[in-house]
Amino acid sequence: MCVAKRGTISVTIALSVLSVVLSRAFAQVETPQTGKESSASPLPAATKEGTQEDPFKDLAPAATPQEAPKEPERSWVQIFLTENFGFRKEIMSQFDINKNGRAASRQSVGFEVLKKFSTPTSTVGSFNFQGRLVRRDGFNPVPNDMEGEQRRGWAFEYHNLYLDFYNVLNPLLSDEQRGENVGRFNFRAGRFYVPFGLNLQTDTHGTVLQLSNERNFGFERDWYTGFWGTLNKHLNYDVYYLAGSGYDLKFKGQSGLGALGISLSNKYSSEYSLEGGLSILGGERLSAEANERTHATTMRAVTSVPIETERVGLDGRYRQAIPTGLLTFASELSGGRDATDSVFTQLHQAEYIHSSRRWGMATQYRRFGEEGRGADASIIGELTWYFRNDVGNSNLHWIKLNVERQLERIQGRPNMIITVQYYFYR
Amino acid sequence: MKHVFAFLTLTVFAAPQQLFGAIGCTLSNPAEDLKYLYPEITTYKEELNEFPRLKDGAKLFEGLKARLGSDLDPIYETYETPYTVYSVFKGQMKIGVVHGVNVPGKGGVIQVFLSMDPTTAEIKSFFFQRLESPAARELRSKDFRAQFAGLNLGDFYKHDYYAAVEPGAKADKIAAIKPPPLDRSGQPDYAASLRGIRKNLILLDFFVFKRRFEPYFEKARQAAEKAKGRKG
Description:
The complex is a heterodimer. Chain A is α+β, with helices and mostly antiparallel strands. Chain A has one domain: Porin, CATH 2.40.160.10. Chain A contains seven helices and 16 strands. A 16-stranded antiparallel barrel of chain A has the order 1-2-3-4-5-6-7-8-9-10-11-12-13-14-15-16, surrounded by four helices. By secondary structure, chain B is of the alpha+beta class. Chain B has one domain. Chain B has a five-stranded antiparallel β-sheet. In chain B, helix 3 packs antiparallel against helix 7 (about 185-205). At the A-B interface, helix 2, strand 1, strand 2, strand 3 and helix 4 of A face helix 1, helix 2, strand 1, strand 2 and strand 3 of B.
């Protein structure tokens, strides 16, 4: 574990230095001109079609035309920490109890660092890191902490850790070609949501309700690298190679996973309130569950082993405004196999948020079925009171009550878990 | 459990104050949207603006309220809300500015985006990224949205002036805007959309256009005060 973390820090530093170097390289070839600005009328347009006695005609222009951005002389450290640099803190306090009276606590403080790298005329990359210092006492399998069973007591956790580079072919293209391909070739490397289903478009960092990837693959984030962008005005694409190792980046004989996603463009979300996509994933990943299956009757699995994995998934989300607020319906369906056993996962969620954004409620049905082993299925209800609920998720503060009724279990008997969560993010 | 609470308490007080927020009303897919708005685009640049990090940010935030003429919603329009301005380039030439804001509507979020001429500070086009409204279809109509092309923040301040001094003046371009056919349930979201456009223009005047329309605001404010005095 320690070796893996040291490796992660080294990778982070290396990627950060690389991004700064690239940013500077772009800056050297791009210096904006003032051209159009200097030739245009400085007068606000309001005087163009005034009345015969324009009461505003005596107003002197208040400002000169906008000047092109200038790059002051600053060190890369100053640039890194001031321009488009974000630091946010997070507090999560979660208590849960099952119907047998087994209680658990998960307390954490965390932070998120976001940074965008730009030249005078272009945003060329971004970096994101989320970390949490967590204290766990006891354990219940709450949807947002499935991996907590292996991390009792104190733990420092990383969640997102990735770099994006936008329009990576630009240095090789003419202006005309850049225009034709804007948004088409973006590169991502690091740890982020598994590119399967709705999770790439959904921030579940703080929420109790999660999507289906954690149960489907054993992890909801993985280490990967690849390309994403716009295919055409209707479709976006994601194509990646994933390590298939989940939390730690490690190779223990697995070949990794290839993933391809095709999703509806933003136009459909904006005009029709509709998101949707098709995902395909295949290869080998590490799975503790596969090991557990092999040794189920003799020992408790603590290590992961490679397992052949194939999945095809369909996902969709639709928003419908109603007079008092907003209803959102989401579904993820996927089928495939783990080794020779077929698997089928389904998740359906309905959510309501009041137009004041002060309170909301949600319900989710989820089921993961595996040939020959049975299924894990639950129905979940959730109520949320928001103190802060920024639309862009940049300023969040809430209390949630989440009740999960397990309907089927592959191992053990179905239970009920009640969770209360306090969350602050700003 | 004692040490858990002690840890949390200590950490909360020791944690640094907010240095930065990051994602406010952003385009979901900037490249796609900016290409649509400016087909000649070659590159674009994102710049984050936040009142807490601006010089005299608190005063400026109060100024937003004054210029908007209405209270700010404590959930949708907080002091900490970050704003992303997109600058659009063709080669080395800046050809556009795009910016979005959130405003509360009857059904929830209304995200109003404006694409602007970077030289004249006039609206090139306006569109909704999210419009959680029973009147969404009507408000999205091209005919309605096209009426805003060519307007600037000065026109909104002039509207305030004319409302105080000369109601119904022909020169009042904002009063001349024809709303789409709406039933009563759609009226609040029409008003919210207009408020969103105005708020967006005010913020752009702060962040990008160096407050060039301040004289118009001052003139309108003085006219409104005089009119109030006469009535009083």
